[in-house]
Write a structure and sequence with these properties.
binds adenosine-5'-triphosphate; 7 strands; five-stranded parallel beta sheet; binds magnesium ion; alpha/beta
Length: 213
């Protein structure tokens, strides 16, 4: 059974969601992706969903407190062990997560390090299954039947923000905001860096070593 809370850090498309699903299956973590939570609000057509849709489609960040509240509403830290994916995204969110959610809980922050240029191709070829959470890549992990999820059979979706223009903006936002997040976890002695440019199964192997250490 998993012990420490995990914070996954890395650029869009660096493999956070894909690797999180391995850890959920093998170690019993709960996966908490703020991007997935926000997209589900949009799909349900809630007030929050309507407020954030344009921001997400443009590849910009939703305001810190809105995302924090959504995260808190979906989190039960006393009883569960989480993989935080997509939060924190800037220095302020790193502080908010510590003060309002983690509150001193044992935590490892794992940074999926890779060259941003290679990510554009990864992301534009990504297709996702919103219900099962499976993530495909037309080049490296195609579905068995075109356009359908192997697990649930549902139609695969090309995320609206996974087009090249928006992806470039998401990369710029990431480049501009990640520094203080890494500094925060480094100063707490909680940061581990992984080379995320390697094939997915090699990254999984390193990740398991980090988590079991
Ligand atoms: P990935 O490619 O791994 O899914 P991503 O960072 O591009 O990574 P998501 O994490 O799914 O995509 O987030 C999608 C969008 O949701 C972001 O571009 C942003 O608009 C919004 N978002 C998600 N998490 C946050 C956050 N912590 N703070 C502000 N906005 C957020
Ligand atoms: Mg993701």
């Amino acid at each position: 059974m998993a012990r420490e809370q995990i914070v996954l850090l890395g650029a869009p498309g660096s493999g956070k969601g894909t690797q999180a699903s391995h850890l959920v299956k093998e170690f019993g973590y709960n996966h908490l992706s703020t991007g997935d939570l926000l997209r589900s609000e949009i799909a349900k057509g809630t007030e929050l969903g309507q407020k954030v849709q344009g921001i997400i489609d443009a590849g910009n960040l939703v305001d810190d407190m809105t995302v924090l509240e959504l995260l808190k509403a979906n989190c039960d830290l006393e009883n569960k062990v989480y993989i935080f994916d997509g939060f924190p995204r800037n220095g302020e969110q790193a502080k908010l997560l510590e003060e309002h959610v983690l509150k001193g809980a044992a935590t490892k922050a794992i940074y999926f390090d890779m060259d941003l240029e290679h990510l554009i191709e990864r992301i534009t070829n990504r297709r996702v299954a919103p219900k099962s959470g499976e993530i495909y890549n037309l080049l490296t992990r195609p579905p068995k039947i075109e356009g359908k999820c192997d697990v649930s059979g549902e139609d695969l979706v090309h995320r609206k923000d996974d087009n090249e223009e928006t992806v470039r903006n998401r990369m710029n936002v990431f480049r501009d905001t990640i520094g203080p997040v890494l500094d925060f976890y480094e100063s707490q002695g909680q940061l581990v860096r992984l080379d995320a440019s390697r094939p997915s199964d090699e990254v999984t192997k390193s990740l398991k070593e980090v988590i079991s250490a």
